[in-house]
Input
Amino acid sequence: MEKTGILICYGDSNTYGYDPQSFMGTRYPKEVRWTGIVGRESGWKVKNYGLNGRTIPQNESQIQAVIDIVHKYGQEEIPVLFLVMLGTNDLLTDALADAGKTAEKMGYFLERIMQAESVRREKVSVWLIAPPILKPGSWIENDRQITESERLGERLALLAKRLKITFTDAGKWELPAVYDGVHLSEEGHRRFAEEIIKDFLKKKGKEYENIGHLPE
Output
């Protein structure tokens, strides 16, 4: 299928494709990762910028690094979609974190990206995705983390509405995770990809009007 655009996937270990069940805790094969499946099925060039342990960037150097990534691909004469799925590690690593504070961090991050002079807004669109809900598991220290992950989708939806960007709540998909309660299983990646592709095509002619034609 003809490559019709670039999909920048910026996220944490569930975007990277981390496999905690492997011997060395390595990565699912590309054909298993949701990013790989979406690239194969959508026809878009998928650039996987997932990183294990990543939280929502807040300092200047982190944010500038992302601006540079978006600017780089925005120079090509094809549509660019910047997909962001973060927030899980913010809830896991900060005892004081909640859905509201996490959404505020996301708002600051996205506003900085969208307001950057080097980002061509006529070429680049933003797609915010609320991450899968946490489940009871070996990485979950208390029920509060699960509760706040359940609330995060609603807060990020409000943020997306304010920023007038595309939003999807992956927390509604009841995706299977592995024993730690955090990372998607192989089946979880497959189902995540299916839902993303359906959402991707469903929004054709709506939120993505300004980035050209999506695959049929």
